[in-house]
Amino acid sequence: MQSAGQYLKQNYFYLRDIRKSLALLFYLICIPLLCSCGPWNLPAYGYIDKDDPPLKSTPMLMPENAPSIPQGFKPVLKNDYDFEIAGHEGVDIKAKKYTPVIAAASGTVIDSSWGPFYGHQIIILHDTKQGRFFVQSYYWHLSKRLLQVGDEVKRGQQIGTLGSTGLLASYPHLHFEVRVSEIKDQTYYSPVNPHKYWTNGAGKISCYENGKDYSTGGFSISYPVFCK
Ligand SMILES: [Zn+2]
């Protein structure tokens, strides 16, 4: 019988290699993942993704009083070998921790949960369709969730507070996504560029206005934080 000590001694180089490989794996997987939501990913401010033809030539209008967007939407693309290239399937809105986060449009809360990567999350299924699509909005990294699954929510109503919960948040921000599906009960809704759906038109970030009538004109979204 070989003792554990002898085994370790004989296989020292082999085990060291495994340790090295695991470390390499960590660097290859976790660091790009952490970087994808970091504040150092800055060039996206004031830009609309170039890979999205309908918005290619649309200038983005950012109201002066709106909290900024340090990172915009980048679709996940597949390379020639069918590997997915990391994208960013929403927009990051930077503001102070505990800033109120508000519903971008009216609907029903279909998820209010915590996860290791996105932290505290709320998902709203909206009442009105966008053309043939049902629409959901996602709110990640919240410091506090104020709503539960099944709650009805009105546009502009506070749903939680902004934070930096979850491994993908390295500074306080709201990761906001818009997702669509032709089938309402579909589990997976596809992320789309939120800049297409603002109340004032594509590329025109629209602050929520208290008292404004949003009932006409089909589906559109308001900025999910108040403008100052
Ligand atoms: Zn993000």
Summarize, please.
With 228 residues, the protein is α+β, with helices and mostly antiparallel strands. It has helices at 4-10, 12-35, and strands spanning 77-78, 84-85, 91-94, 100-102, 107-115, 119-126, 134-142, 144-145, 152-153, 158-161, 173-181, 190-192. Strands 3, 5, 6, 7, 9, 11 and 12 form a 7-stranded antiparallel sheet that branches. A 3-stranded antiparallel sheet has the order 4-10-8, with no helix packed on it. Strands 1-2 form a two-stranded antiparallel sheet.
Helix and strand topology:
Layout: H1 4-10, H2 12-35, E1 77-78, E2 84-85, E3 91-94, E4 100-102, E5 107-115, E6 119-126, E7 134-142, E8 144-145, E9 152-153, E10 158-161, E11 173-181, E12 190-192
Antiparallel strand pairs: 1-2, 3-11, 4-10, 5-6, 5-9, 6-7, 7-11, 8-10, 11-12
Zinc ion binds at residues 37, 71, 88, 90, 92, 175.
Oligomer: single chain
Which shape, going by the Cα principal axes? elongated
Return residue spans where pLDDT drops below 50 for at least 5 consecutive residues. Answer: 38-53
Domains, number: 2
Notable characteristics:
3-stranded antiparallel sheet; alpha+beta; binds zinc ion; 7-stranded antiparallel sheet; 2 domains; Glucose Permease (Domain IIA)
Structure description:
With 228 residues, this protein is α+β, with helices and mostly antiparallel strands. The chain has two domains: 32 residues; 144 residues, Distorted Sandwich (Glucose Permease (Domain IIA)). 14% of the residues lie in helices and 25% in strands. Strands 3, 5, 6, 7, 9, 11 and 12 form a seven-stranded antiparallel beta sheet that branches. Strands 4-10-8 form a three-stranded antiparallel beta sheet, with no helix packed on it. A two-stranded antiparallel sheet has the order 1-2. Zinc ion (ZN) binds next to loops.
